[in-house]
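## retry 2 of 3
previous attempt timed out at serialization; input unchanged, resubmitting
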Amino acid sequence: MNKRLILIPLIGIILTLGVVVYTSLRKIEVKFVYNNDSTISSVTEKFEKNSKVSLPNIEKEGYVLKGWFHDDEQVTDNVVYSSDTVLEARWLKVCKVKYVYEDNEEEEKIIENNTVNLPKVEKEGYIINWYDESDNLVDNKTKVTKDMVITAKYKKIEVEEVKEEKEDKDI
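## retry succeeded, writing output
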């Protein structure tokens, strides 16, 4: 009878260990490296082996998430992993651009190294040019590399009177 009392718990322990080992073999770890300069720089989550991995939706002040990457390849929620892996967040810097003209101000966010989108502004009798804070001329080909304030400057169009002169012609 003593053998039965020992054998039953022993079988339970063996079965439990088998389930734990089997389950652990079916799981993988995915480390998400945020690169967001916060106190949490990475998080590791467990997923079923050969199942789709859910990518975290994260934010970083002044940036937009370009995507999640495994080495240099961008990944999506549809990627399936069969072994432990590391996924890294990559970011694009966003610059604030303020356009100032007459009594108006418009602000937009532009991804760094993209070009400005100057507002279409017209004022009869004036030529309008746009300038940055350093008084450099700005046009729609100007690349944004930092936060900027772009101001419209108006120059009155000078119209000169043209006098017609009559020429005397001999016939």
